[in-house]
Amino acid sequence: MKKKILLLFCILTALCCMLCACGEEKTPIDPPDPGLTLDQTSLTLQIGEEGRLTVSFEGGKTIAWSASDESVVSVTADGAKATVKGLKEGTATVTASCGELTASCTVSVKESPLSVFLPDGATGSLKNGRLVLVKNGKATVKALSEVPLKGEAKWTSSDESIGKVEYQGTICVVTAVARGECTITVECDGYRASFTLFVGKTAS
Predict the structure, then answer these.
(1) 150 near 171, Cβ under 8 Å?
(2) Of the candidates 159, 150, 157, 158, which has an alpha carbon nearest to the alpha carbon of residue 191?
(3) Which has the closest alpha carbon to 133: 103, 93, 175, 97?
(4) Hey, how many other C-beta atoms are within 10 angstroms of the C-beta on 123?
(5) Which of 73, 62, 51, 43 is nearest to 101 (CA)?
């Protein structure tokens, strides 16, 4: 009789353990680490043009940025983002890394056929990519191209509180509004050319 009671007790204990095991929540398995990924794997820039790269990575660790050829591109890091600037024609690989994890972007730099010309005798001086004007001064500049242009040229100022642009096609009148500096850019058919406007100061 005692053996039957003991056997029944063991069976009931086993059943209870099985039921408890079925009711337990399973510990979730962490997903595999996706590693580093960049928002772009290839990028084309013109000389002097800047582009942005952003890395996706969970963990909050420091990202290191580098370029395979610093004479072709420069890289300015800002955490998970970096500004890449084209310096001369060529190709370089920009890499974001954290420990053994890496992600790369191939950057091609091309020379733009566009350039900006300041007619002789005009107010101001355009030299080495810099136009110097006094406040309220004006200068007429012209976009030149080594290849035929099909589209319409568009001129923009990075800060219209310092320098304004009025243009018709490849001809543009730049007006110095206030002391400071800004970038004047002309774009046509995907090509760009730009120069720095200095107002009320001497270009360094």
Answers:
(1) no
(2) 150
(3) 175
(4) 15
(5) 62
Residue 184's DSSP bridge partners are 157, 195
Neighbour order of strands in the sheet with 191-199? 125-127, 130-133, 191-199, 180-188, 154-157
Model-level pTM? 0.55
- Taking CA atoms, 55 is separated from 60, 113, 140, 199, in Å, by 12, 32, 42, 38
- Report DSSP state, residue 139: E
- Per-residue pLDDT at 81 exceeds 50: yes
**What's the burial of 180, exposed, middle or buried (CB within 10 Å: 0-12/13-18/19+)?**
middle
Report pLDDT digits (tens) over 153-184: 999 999 999 999 999 999 999 999 999 999 99
Domains and CATH numbers, the chain: 37-110 (2.60.40.1080), 114-199 (2.60.40.1080)
pLDDT of 85 strictly over 80: yes
